[in-house]
Amino acid sequence: MVVQPRIRSFICLTAHPEGCAENVRQQIRYVNGKGAIENGPKNVLVVGCSTGYGLASRIAASFGCGAGTVGVAFEKPSDKGRTASPGWYNNVAFHDEVKKAGIPVATVNGDAFSDEVKQETIQAIKATLPGGKVDQVIYSLASPRRTDPKTGETYKATLKPIGQPFENKNLNTDKQNVDIVSLEPASDEEISGTIKVMGGEDWELWMEALAEAGVLEEGVQTIAYSYIGPEVTWPIYTNGTIGTAKKDLGRAAKAITEKLSGLCGTAHVSVNKAVVTQASSAIPVVPLYISILFKIMKAAGNHEGCIEQMDRLYRDFLTSDAPPPPDEEGRIRLDDYEMLPDIQQAVAGNWIRINTDTLSEFADFDAYQSEFLRLFGFGIDGVDYDADVEVDLPLPS
Fold first, then answer.
1. Which residues are part of the catalytic machinery?
2. Is 63:40 a contact under the CB 8 Å cutoff?
3. What would the pLDDT profile of 62-71 be if each residue is shown by its tens digit?
């Protein structure tokens, strides 16, 4: 069938299998073009492996470090003529490419929050990876809800400020105009629910399950991803419900490091750059900020997407003999280019001046839209979008 994008708000309802595959191949070519990463991990588990930073991490680990990987994702296959989710096609393409390279690979498709998927993943590690253990665990989940495996209660994440209402400029991506968004503050229940979904509890449960199963190597390293951003987004992000949940990752990192002391293992939080993902597209204010940021960072020559960020994470921070120092809370600051004073001063100036009439002058909405479409396999050079493509692709075993 011929597959074209069908966009509704911040979601694309279709995905292009060949476009997704080419997107994966382009990321692989980027890592390969940088050369081998010395002293990298040998066996890696990526929880949340199918899109964005999780997918880029897996590509950097396998094609930069030569690491075997087990990935965990919750993606939908094609059904009755409907395309699969983009993450499904990404996983298919990753399997195809990594098997050509002769690198061990397995993917578990299911609810990563569940005990069942944790046990299935442990079995995949034992069956797939040399030695049956991992020396690195990447935690990169983004989900709107989570069912607690111990209580059976389902919690939902909420995108709201805390303490007082919030109002600021926003990019209406459907109408391509700048409007005003107003949000009421979150309730205590909404705050606690967001922490349960997006905080560090599940990360801890993963590490506990892996340790109990004996599939962690001596000196294992685990990294969870976070974001801070500029002051203009703090009320809705850093100081809002999401930011409160992300702060819980810091608590979890300390707890995990303590529990891994017998293995000399460590847990870290990496604060990454703002990029276009399915999750970030849903957060008010953030698309406008990203559009402004892209224009400024591209002009400065230091713009990065997911694969550039993850390649640099491995080369400069995780395997370097002299990595940049962590911040005062012990976090890796991969958002260092984004948060440079001159970059943020330029963003702040453009934010004041931007409106619908000046959108193209002070922001790069075309780049934002292009990156959004790429998430679903569209707008990628070398792909014939008028050609029939097979949408029913099984995930390789």
1. 237
2. no
3. 999 999 999 9
